[in-house]
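Researcher: Let's do a round of design. I'm pasting the structure tokens now; please hold your answer until I've finished.
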């Protein structure tokens, strides 16, 4: 059974840094892409960043230059390195992966992890 397990959320001061992780496991043949989304209170879930199998990264304008997506292919793990954090970065962060298994291709979501930026 494919699952994505997130960790690394917490409380951080403005200007600080935090690194989230998203580990995929369970009968994976190929991961086509992995990405991060976030949802703040009263707001719709928004796309944040994406990385492909080839290592091509794309970022939303709101986080470009501050967030990056390191990865560890051996562990099927993607990270969200968050630097220069702002109050508006406060949200529940979710990882998503497009994964091929013996049963075909499908999208999978992590359980979410809370990031709170506060002084």
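Researcher: That's everything. Go ahead.
Model: Designed sequence:
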């Amino acid at each position: 059974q494919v699952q994505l397990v997130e960790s690394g959320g917490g409380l951080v001061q403005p200007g600080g840094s935090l690194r989230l992780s998203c580990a995929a496991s369970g009968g994976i043949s190929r991961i086509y892409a992995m990405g991060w989304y976030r949802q703040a209170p009263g707001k719709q879930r928004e796309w944040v960043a994406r990385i492909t199998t080839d290592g091509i990264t794309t970022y939303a304008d709101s986080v470009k230059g501050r967030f990056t997506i390191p990865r560890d292919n051996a562990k099927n793990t993607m990270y969200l390195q968050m630097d220069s954090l702002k109050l508006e970065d406060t949200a529940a962060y979710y990882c998503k992966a497009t994964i091929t298994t013996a049963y075909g291709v499908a999208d999978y979501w992590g359980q979410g992890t809370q990031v709170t930026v506060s002084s």
